[in-house]
Amino acid sequence: MKHLLTCHEIIKSDIIRGDNCYLYDKNGNRYVDLESGVWSVVLGHNHPRITEAIKKQIEHVTHLGYRYTNFVAEEAAKALLDTIDLPDGKCIFLSSGSEAVEFAVQIAKIITGKKFLLTFGESYLAAHGSAGRKDPTEWLSFDFNSCLTCEDSSCRQSCERIEEIPFDEVGAFVFEPGSASGTVKFPPDKLIKGIIGEVERHNGLVVVDEVTTGFGRTGKWYGFNHYDLEPDIVACGKGLGNGYPISAVAMKRRIAEELEAKEFHYVQSHQNDPLGCAVAKEVIATLKEEKLVERSARLGRRLFSDLCRLAERFDFVHEVRGRGLMIGMQLCEGVPRSPNSTLIFREMLRRGFLIGYHPTHNVIRFFPSLTIEEGEIARLVGTIERVLSEQTQELD
């Protein structure tokens, strides 16, 4: 690849075709994709219903100027809002998860007019903009790792760290419910209740970043469904287009009406494009009709249980964390005979499995398509077990 800018790790693969959870290179080698592309293809590669929806819409119109309405966008909006339980809300369709989160952040600042936004320290949020920079003059960062072992029953009433947050100056809590920059960590329910209780008491908003946790990934429609909360604004991406570049921001009607009353303006070239909206509408319909959210929960329980069994066998496995088909296995650091995540990734790749890994935190992860064949779950676990065992023997 002589003419492509290299700005991250490149693995020579020459992939030419995808089918469900499988990818094929130019030499006919098959790989099981356990990262769903970039956590995007919740329905698997080349899903026939999505392919057909794209073909059908291309025969009509793919792109319109932002001033012109199209019924496909309205139908997609109603379908999306229904999944979030905001039937009276409004949404906008954009092109990427980063753009959606940044849009959500900016409208929260406009609505509240407050100085700060609050988020968790390990939240990724976006590749650019305010949400990408997280400048301390705009953002307050809360590290929830110590909260995972805290035994206090009420975060709001007894936590000194929460009491230090200037909630009267916080316009919104921007909550990423599970990815933690690819390390797969889930903040405790009592912490979320405590923070949101204070944010709402001071007239702040709750913004949820569902870019990586939405559309069945965690065994429920959205990551926030695992918590007792009603978001004001939801940013969606990745799974909404099953790999096609479309994202969305959904919001309560009162927020939409306040923005419109302020004569809020935002324009980009692919805003509410009919082709992307046709894809989004079909993705949502497929998830519902094929009961894939429920399938994610069921297969996720099986994979989680199998990986926990491996954690009991190998003492260098620190922890297995997961919800639905979003599962991470953290390996111990600085422990004798402990392999690192990079070695595991490379060995699994050699055996035909594309898994995720986070070398800084020594985590390997599994985000397969919700359509993955059940037999591949068993084959994955067996292969991981052999690799961990072989790595251990090599380190002896």
In CATH, the architecture of the largest domain is 3-Layer(aba) Sandwich
Strand/helix succession:
EEEHHHEHEHEHHEHEEEHHHEEHEEEH
Could you name the CATH class of the largest domain? Alpha Beta
Rounded to an integer in angstroms, the radius of gyration calculated over CA atoms is: 21 Å
What's the overall geometry? globular
Physical arrangement of strands within the biggest beta sheet: 4-10-9-8-7-5-6
Strand fraction: 15-25%
How is this fold's topology laid out?
Blueprint: E1 15-19, E2 22-25, E3 30-33, H1 36-39, H2 48-58, H3 71-84, E4 90-94, H4 97-112, E5 116-120, H5 129-133, E6 139-142, H6 155-158, H7 160-163, E7 170-175, H8 189-201, E8 205-209, E9 233-236, E10 247-251, H9 253-261, H10 274-289, H11 292-313, E11 317-323, E12 326-331, H12 341-350, E13 353-354, E14 356-358, E15 363-366, H13 374-395
Parallel strand pairs: 3-13, 5-6, 5-7, 7-8, 8-9
Antiparallel strand pairs: 1-2, 2-3, 4-10, 9-10, 11-12, 12-15, 14-15
